[in-house]
Amino acid sequence: MPHYQEGLAKSAGHEWFYLGVGGAVGLAALVAVAALLAVRKRRQYPSLLLPPRQVIAVRGGFPKGPGGLKQSPSPLQSPLSNDSTPSPVVPLQNLLEDRTRKLSPSELPSERGNISFTLSYDSHTLTLLVSIINCRNLCEMVVSRDGQCLLDPYVKLQLLPEREHRVKTRIVRSTTSPVYEEQFAMYGVTHEQVNFATLHFQVVAFDRYSRDTVVGECVYRLADAELQVHNEMRVELPLLPRATDTVAARGELLLSLTYQAAFNNLTVVVLKARGLGGRNDAGTADPFVKLYLRKESGERIVKKRTHVRRSTLNPVYNESFVFELPDDRLEHSVIDLQVINHDRVNRNDVIGRALLNMEDSHVVEVLENPGRQVAQWHHLD
Q1: Cα–Cα distance for residue pair 149/136, rounded to 1 Å
Q2: Are strands 153-160 and 198-205 parallel, antiparallel or unpaired?
Q3: What is the DSSP pairing of strand 287-295 with strand 300-305?
Q4: N or C: which end of the chain has fewer CB within 10 A?
Q5: Are residues 227 and 339 in the same domain?
Q6: Where does the chain cross the membrane (predicted)?
Q7: Is residue 141, in this structure, part of any structural domain at all?
Q8: Rounded Cα–Cα distance for residues 153 and 138 (Å)
Q9: Dihedral sign, Cα of residue 316, residue 318, residue 319, residue 325
Q10: CA-to-CA distance for 102 and 213, rounded, in angstroms?
């Protein structure tokens, strides 16, 4: 019996030995097959098997700008690294001021370009059709260093003297010769209006950051078109500067100043204005005065304003304002006065401006006579 059990044990040991050897051989065969497959795949697709730790640099697909040039990435983040130092952020308005310059009225030519339009009148429906075709050779209001055209013009039209049927065209970008081809129907225009009314055209430069500026304007008497006889009339007119574009037409402002050195304050009395330039089609204005007290650096300290005076070019205000001066007193302050036309429909328009500082004779006299009221006229620029 012991011999029988010993034989069984030897037989089982031999079986385990053969199984182990067979498993090792099978595993080696699997490893060899896998290695062979890997070598074949490497030969077929070498670009997919990169050496370990190799970095792939991907060029960003930035959208293309004008002329097919690629736009640069954002200055706030580098596309290749998150550790880059961001570029300094410069306000857009400062960039625009560095690259562009707005022309003063004295720098603009007297000839502002031309406007073309057609007229027709339906006496049965009392409808006046005005088609604004185009403008040519408009003068630019802003110049850029690179010579790019920055004029974005549109046309405003109204029927005078009633100031009815106010319309305007779309804005055409970056051109001095815009094409509009837009037609406007003015309903209820009577036969009497056709004989006596006037069309008022204004070509306006659009400004997204500031107030729009009138490039030029013209008027046309409907009677000259003889619309009762002609089916359609085509007209081309020269554009002229606005009357208020000249300094002489801006007028004068009468101010009274009193400097109280003991209390370090300044009393400003806005007395009246005279000879202001007309800002509406009736040749009048609705003016009021804004007063700013600023530091020499331009920082605004306080702002005040008068009441509006209706339909006059010679308004009388007699309004008094007391300004508490900063610690550096009046010698280092600037008084900024702006006469503005109040417009209930469009944005308010500046008629003229006066700046008073230490170089002004009025301020010098006030400083030399503290406590005394000194009045003086100031030309508006």
Answers
A1: 14
A2: antiparallel
A3: antiparallel
A4: N
A5: no
A6: 16-39
A7: yes
A8: 9
A9: positive
A10: 11
Look up the pTM and report it: 0.45
Chunked mean pLDDT (size 10), the chain, 381 residues: 52 63 73 71 50 39 40 38 43 52 73 96 94 96 84 94 86 97 95 90 86 88 88 94 62 91 90 81 84 82 93 94 78 87 81 85 86 89 81
Q: What SS3 class is residue 307?
A: coil
Residues 230, 326, single domain; the answer is: no
As a whole number of angstroms, the distance between CA 292 and CA 334 comes to 8
- Residue holding tokens 């094409």? 179
At 302, list the tokens.
């306080």
Strand partners, 203: 155, 216
Tokens describing residue 233: 């009339």
Residue 367: predicted pLDDT:
85
State which of 241, 274, 302 marks the end of a domain: 241
- Rounded Cα gap, residues 324 and 304, in angstroms: 12
DSSP 329-374: TGGGEEEEEEEEE--SSS--EEEEEEEE-TTSHHHHHHHHSTT--E
CA 88 to mean position of chain CA atoms:
22
Token representation of residue 258: 């009193």
- Residue 263, amino acid: F
Contact 138, 177 (CB under 8 A): yes
C-alpha dihedral sign at 134, 137, 143, 149: positive
